[in-house]
Amino acid sequence: MHRAPVEMLPLEMLSEIFCHCLDHSETYMSPHRNRAPLLLTRVCRSWRRCAITTPALWTSLRLYSPFTEHQYRSLVSLADLWLQRSGARPLSLSLTIPDPHSLPASLLSHLPRCTRLHLAAPDPFSAALRDNMPLLESLSLTSPKDHAFYPKEPTFPLDISAPRLRALALDGFPHRLVLPWAQLTHLRVANWEPTKPWLSLLRECSALTSCSLSPAGEILLVGGAPTPIVFPALESLRVHPTRVLGFVRVLEHFAAPNLKHLDVAVPGNIVPLCREVAPLLARSQCQLQSLALAGLRLDAFEDFRALCALVPNLTRLSIAGIGRMSFPSRMFFDEMTRKEGRGCLLPQLEALEMRLSVGKTDFPDDAIEEMLRSRIAGQHSGCSRMRSADVYVHRRIHDWIASLVDQGTHWYISEQGEVVQQRLEAGER
């Protein structure tokens, strides 16, 4: 009987091929009968046997909480079988469940093998995280939105031994957590109130290389002049408050001499962000490479010029959502234009993205074109060549409302290195 070539492959080779069938773009694998690995068990008996006995296919799982109790029990049974097939390999698990107490002991027994773990539950501490986690490198805890500001205290305090933990993400949980803060290198906290207890925890995170904070409360960080916390290894800082008051004085508590990437976005277009960001940069004396600002207010162009002076080596700049300006918008582009015999702002800039809304008498298009053409001409006199640019200019319908805009212009650098102008109709962004 003729056999297909694939049937003559050694099991070890077939197992390796099966592993390449997985969707490696997903951090956690969602079970689906028409996708690997479940699909591989439905082709033929030999493939099923090979797939079931290949532990590497079953080391990642995303478990959602379904709407009915019957569906939930079925899904938990599938998860238990799935993880049994993973053998003793390290796991990546994401569990979204209504009640962690409902998880069977057989499923909980797999948690110490996790290297990555995401738990979304009202109280994930009590049942799921009571054991030591010797392999855990990344932990993410999410509270339901109705518990975001004042969640109930954990039934059991979170106090685990996780010697390898480096990345932590918290969404909507209180600060009363006993964790190895000093060994964390990546921290992301959302829906938190910027109070002094949180500052005490941040002070313990001396090894951070990246930090993302999304304050949601309206409690101000008050109580005299702050003592900045020095983060010697911090390279990336992202601050995106959901409310304006959640941002007030947050940056005053940071000093980061190794900072390379800064991303700050504040709603409302009422915070003079340049004045908020400049002291952080001056205090840190860092060599910033990329800066993203959104929702800022500019009272004077001198504020922007002073900010640029603090970041002479900046290679990427993104500015979005500037409110009303007391100066012509063309000043941005005039001072970034390279001209013989004079310097220019941000001489090392290679990538620029700006989104401006301008008044009815503000016409910066010629200045934008001149700036872009001068910056794509190649490296000259210490000025780097600009390789990418997207500048959107929208005209305000009412001069006092920055968000109500009409038609505009989009300037960009094409793949061929040419400056291109594109007209935008009303509603285009």
TrEMBL record:
Domain of life the protein comes from: Eukaryota
Protein name (Swiss-Prot/TrEMBL): Uncharacterized protein
